[in-house]
Amino acid sequence: MSISVIILAAGQGTRMKSDTPKVLHKISGKEMLFHAIDAGEAISDDITVILYHQAKKVKKAIESEYSGIKFHIQDVENFAGTGGALRGVEPKYSRTLILNGDMPLVTEESLTALTKEGSDINMSVIRLENPTGYGRVVIEDGAVKEIVEEKDCSLEQKEIKSVNAGVYCVKSELLNRYIPKIDNNNAQKEYYLTDIIKMAVDEEKVVNPVFVKEEEFKGVNSKLDLALAEEIMQRRIKEDLMRAGVIMRLPDTIFIDCKAKFEGEVILENGVTILGESVIKSSNIKSNSVVEESIIENSSIGPMGRVRPLSYIKDTHIGNFVEVKKSTLNGVKAGHLSYIGDASIEEGSNIGAGVITCNYDGKAKYKTTIGKNVFVGSDCQLVAPVKVEDDVIIGAGTTLTKDVKRGSLAISRTPLKTIANYFYKFFGDK
Ligand code: UD1
Ligand code: MG
What we know:
The chain is α/β, with parallel strands linked by helices. The protein has two domains: 4-211, Spore Coat Polysaccharide Biosynthesis Protein SpsA, Chain A (Alpha-Beta Complex), CATH 3.90.550.10; 223-410, UDP N-Acetylglucosamine Acyltransferase, domain 1 (3 Solenoid). The strands form six sheets. Strands 12, 13, 15, 16, 18, 19, 21, 22, 24, 26, 28, 31, 34 and 36 form a 14-stranded parallel beta sheet that branches. An eight-stranded parallel beta sheet has the order 14-17-20-23-25-27-30-33, with no helix packed on it. Strand 2 and strand 3 form a beta hairpin. The longest helix has 21 residues, at 223-243. The protein is elongated, with a radius of gyration of 30 Å. Bound molecules: uridine-diphosphate-N-acetylglucosamine and magnesium ion. Residues 8-11, 50, 74, 76, 80-82, 84-85, 100-102, 134-135, 147, 149, 163-166, 192-194, 219 line the site of uridine-diphosphate-N-acetylglucosamine.
């Protein structure tokens, strides 16, 4: 579609009470502003983000994820307000969609409705029982006549329940003409973008109200809003996944990052957390396990298992209280209480309870390599860097500090001593 997108993100976000720029707070693992950019990218290849407060930080964050986004730094000192934000912006296409950076829940479906052709301006309207704080939309005979900001409303206008949701699709030619004409003669002494509606009406342009869902267009302004938006986003993500074939036990207790992908039949039990760009294929993630930025294939994890970033786990069983980090496990059993970090372990190998890879010497991280069919007894420490070839047995309690050749037994143990009747000598006869 030949449409330009402008995303307003210059505001300070005072109500968020945070040092992090408001639009960089995350919903389901993705920055709010990035949700808006993604929605924009679904319909446009000409996206401009308006910045001012913490502009450098926000720009840097955007540039680390996206290319081809244009930036415009608002002259807030001289032209504060949503109308000031658009001064000097030149849309490439004949129509422009104006979005807000703090509306992460807007769907492509609603944007499609807002970009419908046939009028000069389409503007988003929500009907609210309590319209406090929003600009009121005066609608006559199905057409918008005016938007009046809360602080400029008469008592009568305050009763209007149709409010401006703040997203508009405008003919670019109108924007180019109207934006420089906006003044700041209002209660807030700000340049109101909403004034373009009146200018359009004065020129007998068609301003079409598009009624949208409050759930999608309610801006996120506080940490309470953030939590409420998260709930909505999580519900959407999980409903889509369940429709696509993922089984979830007590879905309300599960958290899934918007970037996670699922294939085949996956079972997620209660309390599971899936973070980052994880891929889960035909696996069972049991209760209260956490998987972060990893690939899990044909495996079972947990209950209470933890898979940290950059792990690749295939045909493997990981049991309770096993932590895996940046490791490749292929056809492995690690049933209980282990730390497996910076390791690669091949098929048929068994990791006993309490096995630890000592991957860090206080300065650097080292690798542990374990071949096929290796039996690592309980409570072993594998001091990396260390390599264990195929078909090896490592006796329980061994501290392994050297590589082990194929077919060997490795065992380090203090000889066991028993002293008869020592108990009675020590505590006396009872
Ligand atoms: C604006 C609308 C109001 C509408 C409401 C919906 C105007 C004058 N009023 O209110 O009718 O009901 O949105 O949420 O437009 N921003 C900038 N530069 C600025 C000021 C704001 O980029 O100088 C950005 C903010 O970062 C935010 C968006 O514009 O993403 C909306 O700003 P906000 O202050 O929340 O909106 P209001 O002025 O309260
Ligand atoms: Mg404001």
